[in-house]
Amino acid sequence: MLKIPYFSFLKLDFEIYHLNTSKNFYGFFILYFSFFIFKLIYKLSKSNKKIYKKIIKLKK
User: Which superkingdom heads the taxonomic lineage of this protein's source (predicted)?
Assistant: First the structure.
């Protein structure tokens, strides 16, 4: 009994996803890509700060 609504929900979800991707595929792609780059830069800057602090401690 649980399989039928779950399957229909998946189908509905797929339909919504398909509609969104066909209409604004590039918009979603650019949004996701920019968010990914932002996360990457944020992680890199955090790790660079840690490395920089370690170098300063080693120099002293």
Answer: Bacteria
Alpha helices in 1-60, H assignment, sequence order: 3-59
Quote the tokens at residue 28.
Answer: 């979603």
Assess contact for 14 and 22: CB atoms under 8 A. Answer: no
For residue 12, being part of any structural domain is answered with: yes
42 domain residue, yes or no: yes
Domain that holds residue 41: 6-59
Q: What digits encode the pLDDT tens for the residues 5-60?
A: 555 555 666 666 666 555 566 667 777 788 888 888 888 888 878 877 887 788 76
24: in domain: yes
> Quick check: is 1 in a domain?
no
